[in-house]
């Protein structure tokens, strides 16, 4: 693609010099369940079963859909469907995690949001394991890209197919709000969460879920970097963060 945001940022050095300022989380954060304020964005998640993400992913595998990579990607990174349309670059790291580089959507030419964000994740989910296998077959590097509208349609279709009892189907954005809830339950502060979601201000957290709605399992995130620093407008006190050092035996 000719869109500058869809290029390989590692090979072209797309503004990565801005990360030198230290705008990142340098250690793993381990899941620590904390209670968060409920909001309207969590309502849809509450209607979904606890293992809704794994059900949709398995339905994608069973149907052999070409959007399986995109669904797995949204599950572990919380990226927007449009960002899948731009193309998300994944790297397999030495510690067994997956590093994702996401070209931001909803930036209005750089006025809003983050033009790019980058972080590493580790999970014991089937979606993560699937992407690890795909990366191993691709020499440790791949770009996941698919039409945003088609991805949204496929997620809704698979949701209705594998969970017909639900009144409302899961949507592609449910993955993003579930990811937000996961980060809240990790104990990350609002600045780090905003960076991971691609927001330039922590006020955007008011529109995102703090509810955790997925199956029990391990999820870790580290090295959160973004194009620019987050503007802190909220007066919310930052929660305590429990750290998990890089040499944790779980990763080896």
TrEMBL record:
InterPro entries: DNA_brk_join_enz (IPR011010), Integrase-like_cat_sf (IPR013762). Gene3D superfamilies: Intergrase catalytic core (1.10.443.10). Keywords: DNA recombination. This is Tyr recombinase domain-containing protein. It comes from Methylomonas rapida.
């Amino acid at each position: 693609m000719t869109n500058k945001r869809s290029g390989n940022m590692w090979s072209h050095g797309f503004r990565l010099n801005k990360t030198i300022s230290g705008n990142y989380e340098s250690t793993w954060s381990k899941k620590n369940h904390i209670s968060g304020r409920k909001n309207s964005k969590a309502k849809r998640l509450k209607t979904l079963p606890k293992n809704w993400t794994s059900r949709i992913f398995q339905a994608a595998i069973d149907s052999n859909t070409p959007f399986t990579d995109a669904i797995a990607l949204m599950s572990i990174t919380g990226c927007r469907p449009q960002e899948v349309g731009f193309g998300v670059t994944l790297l397999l790291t030495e510690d067994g995690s997956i590093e994702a580089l996401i070209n931001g959507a909803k930036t209005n030419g750089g006025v809003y949001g983050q033009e790019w964000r980058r972080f590493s994740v580790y999970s014991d989910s089937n979606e993560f394991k699937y992407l690890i296998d795909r990366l191993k077959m691709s020499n440790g590097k791949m770009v996941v890209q698919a039409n945003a509208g088609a991805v949204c349609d496929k997620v809704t279709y698979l949701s209705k197919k594998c969970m017909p009892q639900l009144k409302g189907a899961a949507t592609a954005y449910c993955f993003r709000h579930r990811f937000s809830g996961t980060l809240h339950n990790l104990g990350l502060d609002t600045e780090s969460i905003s960076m991971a979601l691609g927001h330039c201000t922590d006020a955007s957290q008011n529109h995102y879920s703090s509810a955790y709605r997925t199956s029990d399992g391990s999820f870790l995130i580290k090295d959160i970097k973004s194009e620019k620093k987050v503007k802190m407008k909220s007066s919310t006190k930052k929660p305590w963060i429990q750290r998990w050092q890089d040499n944790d035996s779980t990763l080896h």
